[in-house]
Amino acid sequence: MDGRRVTAYGSMLGVAFGGFTWVVVAGGLIHEPVVSLGGVALGSLVWWFGGRGLLRYPTRPAMVWGVLTLFVVLIDWAVLAYVLPRLPEQGGSIYLGTSRSAYTMLQPILLVCGAAGTALVLWDLLRRR
Q1: What is the tally of structural domains in the chain?
Q2: Residue 3 in contact with residue 42, Cβ under 8 Å?
Q3: What angle do CA 34, 38, 44 make, to 5 degrees?
Q4: Are 120 and 69 in contact (CB under 8 A)?
Q5: SS3 content of the chain, % helix, strand, coil (to 5)
Q6: What are phi and psi of 11, to 5 degrees?
Q7: Does residue 42 contact residue 50 with C-beta atoms inside 8 Å?
Q8: Which domain holds residue 65?
Q9: How many angstroms separate the Cα of 44 from the Cα of each of 5, 21, 84?
Q10: 92 within 8 A of 98, measured Cβ to Cβ
Q11: Cα 34 from Cα 18, distance rounded (Å)
C-alpha cells in the first residue's frame, strides 16, 4: 500500500468526520433523515475528492486544504442556517449538542475556519509567484 495514498485519504477522512458529524446529529435532533443522510453523503464526497485532490496535486497541498476548508465551511454554514431555527430551545451544552445555543456556538468556529481556508488559498497563490 502506498503511504502517500493512505495519508491523503486518512487526513480527508478526519476532515469529513470533523466537518459533518454535527450535521448527522442535528438531523437526528430535528427528526429529518434527509439532513442526516446529506451529512453522510457530503462527508463521503469530501473524503473522496479531497483525497484525490491531494494525490493529483502533491506539490500544492495548501491549495487543496484551503479549497476543501472553504467548501466545508460554506456547506456547514448553509446547513446550520437550515437546522438552527428547527432545534429546541431547551438547555444543553456544546458537548451534548442538544440545544439551539449549543449550535449557535458553531458560527464563530466556522468564521475562523473560513478565514484559515482563505489564507491557505492566498498563501499558495502568492507563494507560486
Answers
A1: 1
A2: no
A3: 150
A4: yes
A5: 80, 0, 20
A6: -70, -35
A7: no
A8: 3-127
A9: 16, 11, 23
A10: yes
A11: 19
Q: Is residue 4 within 8 Å of residue 57, measured between CB atoms?
A: no
pLDDT digits (tens, 9 = 90+) for 3-50: 878 888 888 888 888 889 889 988 888 889 999 999 999 999 999 998
Among 54, 55, 35, 33, which residue's Cα sits nearest to residue 43?
35
* pTM of the predicted protein model: 0.85
CA dist., res. 53 & res. 124, Å (int): 15
Q: Give the count of beta carbons closer than 10 Å to the beta carbon of residue 44.
A: 13
- Nearest in space to 39 (alpha carbons), one of 51, 56, 52, 22: 22
Distance CA 77, CA 107 (A): 8
